[in-house]
C-alpha cells in the first residue's frame, strides 16, 4: 500500500475562524455547509477536520467531519452533515446556523484515508460515508485526471442519495429499500464489484471504503472475496 500522506503539523494544530457562507439541502436529512476559511492550508481528498462550537456560557462542543470539497476550491471548504437526532453540533448546523455565523476549525487531519489522485481509486460508500469519497470525485473532475476512478454508493432510496445531482458515469448507485422503476433493490453485492475487479486497471485499484461499521465490514469482505489485496483497502467507519 502506498504510504500515508504527511499531515502539516502546524496547520493541524491551529484553530481558525471560518465563516459560513452558504447552506445547500442535499436530502431530507443532510445539508452541505460552505465555509470561508482565511489561511486554510489546503487538503488532500479524504482528509477531515476538527470543528468547534462555543456557547455564550463558554461550553464547547467538538466533532470530526470529513471534507466534502475538492482541494482546488481555494479559501473555501464544504462539509456535508446528517441531522443526527439530539446531536449537539449537527443539530446546531441544521436548526440554528445561518450564513455569516462563525465557527472554529482545525485541520486538515489524518493522511491514512487520503487519495492524492496518483493511482486508480475504487470508492465504496454508504449514506454519509460518501462525503470524503465525493471530495475525491470532485478532485478527479476538477483536475481532469486520467487515472481510473469508480464510485459505488449505497443508500436506502433515491431520496436519501447525497449528491445525486452531481453523479456521472463514474458512479453506480445501490438502493437497499426502494429504487427507481426498473432498478434492483438490495445490498451491495459481489456482482457490483466483479466487473471492476476481474479486469483491474494497470497497477490495480486502491480501494476506499467509508460508512457504518456494518457496511465497512460487509464491503471489505466483498472486496477481499473478489480478489482485492487486503493491504490496498483503506477503511473509514463511524457508528
Q: What does this molecule look like?
A:
- With 239 residues, the protein is of the alpha/beta class.
- The protein folds into two domains: 9-109, Elongation Factor Tu (Ef-tu), domain 3 (Beta Barrel), CATH 2.40.30.10; 121-238, 3-Layer(aba) Sandwich (Rossmann fold), CATH 3.40.50.
- Helices cover 20% and strands 33% of the residues.
- The chain contains five helices and eleven strands.
- A six-stranded antiparallel β-sheet has the order 4-3-6-1-2-5, covered by helices on one side. A five-stranded parallel β-sheet has the order 9-8-7-10-11, sandwiched between helices.
- α5 links the parallel β10 and β11.
- The radius of gyration is 18 Å and the shape is globular.
Distance between the termini: 26 Å
If you compute it from the alpha carbons, what radius of gyration comes out, rounded to the nearest whole angstrom? 18 Å
Major beta sheet, specifics? 6 strands, antiparallel
CATH C-level name of the largest domain: Alpha Beta
CATH topology of the largest domain: Rossmann fold
Order of helices and strands: HEEEEEHEEHEEHEHE
What number of structural domains do the residues give?
A: 2
CATH superfamily of the largest domain: Nucleotide-binding domain of ferredoxin-NADP reductase (FNR) module
- Please give the share of residues in helix: 10-25%
**Uncertain segments:** none
The counted number of beta strands is 11
